[in-house]
Design a protein that fits this description.
By secondary structure, this protein is mainly beta. About 10% of the residues lie in helices and about 40% in strands.
Length: about 450
């Protein structure tokens, strides 16, 4: 190339760059990475390395380092963020921090980054696009909640991430596919961060994560359309987002009154044994005596196919349950009969060791099917857990605990009938097969609180 040609080429590059900057200003987009340096970024927490290679930020894993983050020096409130990311280690992990913070004194002085993260998960679990609260609450939106989006991420290539944080809502997309939706009560602003995950094995050292085309928009924001019908993790007590309402969700408990509920043994709400206060509906203790204080309460409405979600908080040693397809036709001295999502302190309550193979433990289909759960997804006694029961029109049923599916079965199937025949329910003909029924909150004699009880008819 002649000297004159080089000058012309250089001028063309400058013109193209200027046009790019002007175009970005017109649309409101701003590059967070200049393609050459790490200006505007700083590393925090671990010892993994970040450097620029061929217009890309490359993070490299280091053995025995904690999670390491390259974070923006600026903080952001409302924004739409885009980035293209590729990861080498298909057994590894990465993510993008949003509205996050740093506690320099934590982790024995090494510091801790905490805040919501859009997950990058190349493993067979396929939770990319889910939302994890790094260094604080753990998983907020596991991708068990939106399995249709689990194939959006492609290993071995760059994937396009879009994250929208507006108001108290965070939404994620991977390669244009809507993934996760959280309505939160924490963090109005904070920094953006790129993660290189901690590793312990030498065989995983030196693995790289590549970040490029990182840009953000903070002005002229408009809500990006989100695919209909996706479950929302809403952490605002007893509230529904506009999106949830438009998708058919409604509250079964308004947070203020007993409206929509009455005694399973009568026609009115119990005069004692239940308290509604501070946004909670709480069954009081009666020293473990089942249904002898206020007794069970049931929903006014009957439901057949539905998506039911609720938050519950146990006291030490407590036992309760949320039942569905409750007809009130069976006459019992104790609790009313129905399919039961078990609520239990598995450590202290003796029921956890009864039944068959753990089928009376937390989140199980009581006395029928054990919940397959990991301890890391169970919140301690005294903290809030989220239960979910989905009954499909074809009688498939799923139980979830804190966003993770823990069991599935089919009402009325041969396998279901065989389980019933071996259970305490064998004496009731066609148990659990009613066309419709009430939702029930159980009084098992222990103090348990509920909130954010919401349902959607399917």
């Amino acid at each position: 190339m002649s000297k004159y040609s080089k000058i012309i080429f250089s001028c063309m590059v400058v013109v193209m760059c200027c046009r790019h900057v002007i175009a970005q200003k017109k649309t409101g987009w701003v590059d967070l990475f200049d393609g050459k340096t790490l200006n505007g970024w700083k590393p925090l927490a671990g010892n993994a390395t970040f450097k620029v290679e061929d217009g890309t930020i490359v993070g490299t894993t280091v053995v025995n380092s904690g999670n390491t983050f390259l974070t923006t020096e600026k903080e952001y409130g409302n924004f739409i963020l885009e980035a293209d990311i590729k990861i080498e280690d298909t057994t590894g992990n990465s993510g993008i921090q949003t509205r996050s913070h740093f506690d320099a004194a934590d982790n024995q002085g090494h510091g801790k980054v905490y805040g919501r993260q859009c997950e990058l998960d190349p493993t067979s679990r396929k939770w990319t696009g889910g939302i994890y609260d790094e260094g604080r609450r753990g998983w907020l939106y596991p991708m068990d909640l939106n399995t249709s989006a689990q194939t959006a991420f492609k290993n071995g290539q760059y994937n396009h991430f879009t994250i929208q944080c507006m108001g108290n809502e965070m939404k994620t997309w991977v390669n244009g596919v809507a993934c996760a939706y959280v309505v939160d009560t924490l963090d109005n602003e904070g920094f953006i961060g790129l993660q290189v995950h901690a590793i312990k094995e030498v065989s995983h050292a030196g693995k790289k994560v590549y970040f490029k085309n990182i840009r953000i928009k903070t002005t002229g924001l408009e809500q990006k359309p989100f695919t209909r019908g996706i479950y929302v993790v809403n952490l605002e007590p007893n509230k529904l987002s506009t999106y949830e309402k438009s998708n058919g969700w409604k509250l079964l408990f308004d947070g203020k009154s007993s409206k929509g509920w009455y005694s399973a043994k009568g026609s009115a709400f119990p005069e004692k044994g239940w308290v509604i206060d501070n946004g909670l509906i709480t069954v009081l203790s009666s020293e473990g005596k089942e249904s002898t204080n206020g007794g069970d309460i049931v929903s006014d409405e009957l439901f057949s196919a539905f998506d039911l979600s609720f938050q519950f908080k146990l006291t030490p040693g407590a036992n309760s349950g949320v039942k569905y397809f409750v007809t009130l036709d069976e006459k019992t001295e104790g609790s009313s009969i129905g399919l039961e999502y078990q609520i239990l302190d598995d450590t202290l309550h003796p029921d956890a060791k009864l039944g068959r193979d753990g089928d009376r433990t937390l989140a199980s289909l009581y006395d029928l099917i054990k919940a397959d759960k990991q301890k890391r997804f169970i919140k301690p006694i005294g903290q809030w857990n989220t239960g979910r029961v989905v009954v499909y029109p074809d009688n498939r049923v799923d139980h979830y605990l804190n966003g993770v599916k823990v069991l599935s079965y089919i009402r009325g199937s041969k396998e279901f009938k065989d389980l019933v025949a071996m259970s305490k329910y064998h004496k009731w003909p066609n148990f659990g097969e009613a066309k419709e029924g009430h939702i029930l909150l159980q009084d098992h004699g222990n103090q348990v609180s509920f909130k954010s009880i919401k349902i959607k008819t399917l």
